[in-house]
Amino acid sequence: MLWVKVFHIVFVASWFAGLFYLPRIFVNMAQQSDPATLAVLGGMARRLYRFMTILAVPAIILGLVLYAYYRIGFGPGNGWMHVKLLLVVVLIGYHHACGVILRKFQHSANKRSHVFYRWFNELPVLILVAVTALVVLKPF
């Protein structure tokens, strides 16, 4: 089971790398007006989103395997896991939102400024800190 943990951590870290970088590409796209540059950034964003999705699937599946293996239930002392799972659901929603934003850029329908995307970029950082604290500290 330790190998499952190892690969879960590797896939989660890799998925987060994409979640950190894709909104930075959105910042650059929101500041850009040159069609050629937008096309290059759009291609980068599209490939990154596709790769992030491929990384997210095993990260989630391996996490569910670990959850089932350790039989973390609803009893006392396991509240941290349920908050963590809620944050994972939020993260999946964030991943989906990145896909929606990418499609808006691809159809030249973006209405948001680079400032919005700078703030949008901070959410996965906050989630990573919260999940790491929950897993390490198991506060409740």
Structure, explained:
Pfam families: UPF0093. With 140 residues, the protein is an all-alpha fold. Helix content is 83%, strand content 0%. It has helices at residues 2-31, 35-70, 79-106, 114-120, 123-137. It is elongated, with a radius of gyration of 17 Å. The model has no long low-confidence stretch (mean pLDDT 95).
Q: What is the structural class? A: mainly alpha
Shape: elongated
In this structure, how is the largest beta sheet organized? none
Beta content comes to under 5%
Cα distance spanning the termini: 24 Å
Number of domains: 1
Write the element-wise H/E pattern from the N-terminal end onward. HHHHH
Number of helices: 5
Roughly what is the average pLDDT, rounded to an integer? Answer: 95
Number of strands: 0
Low-confidence stretches: none
Helix content: over 70%
Tell me the radius of gyration.
17 Å
Catalytic activity: protoporphyrinogen IX + 3 A = protoporphyrin IX + 3 AH2
Pfam families: UPF0093 (PF03653)
Family: Belongs to the HemJ family.
Function: Catalyzes the oxidation of protoporphyrinogen IX to protoporphyrin IX.
